[in-house]
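Minutes, project check-in
Item: structure for the 102-residue chain
Input as provided by the requester:
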Amino acid sequence: MDPKKAVVIGVGAATGAVVAAVGIPVVLGAVGFTTAGIAAGSWAAGMMSAAAVANGGAVAAGSTVAVLQAAGATGVSGLVTAAVSSVGAASAWLVSNIHRKR
């Protein structure tokens, strides 16, 4: 593998890891999925209300709201970080191949 390509892929993977570790919790908190629970009056509260109405008064386990709240409360798992890093590396590889063909 070309050393320049390896560096680009490494940078893409590192960027993906940073986005997963830092960006996702920030975005979840901004929309109302916080470590203390769903923030009153937030977008997340509206989403939770709609989910509860649709499910007869409770939010279903495993639903989008439940998964986002779990991520907001506990942070992003290593698996999610690895997945986002992989997407970053794949994107960097794709960009390097497109750039090389020009």
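Outcome recorded: The chain is about 75% helix and 5% strand.
No further action items on this chain.
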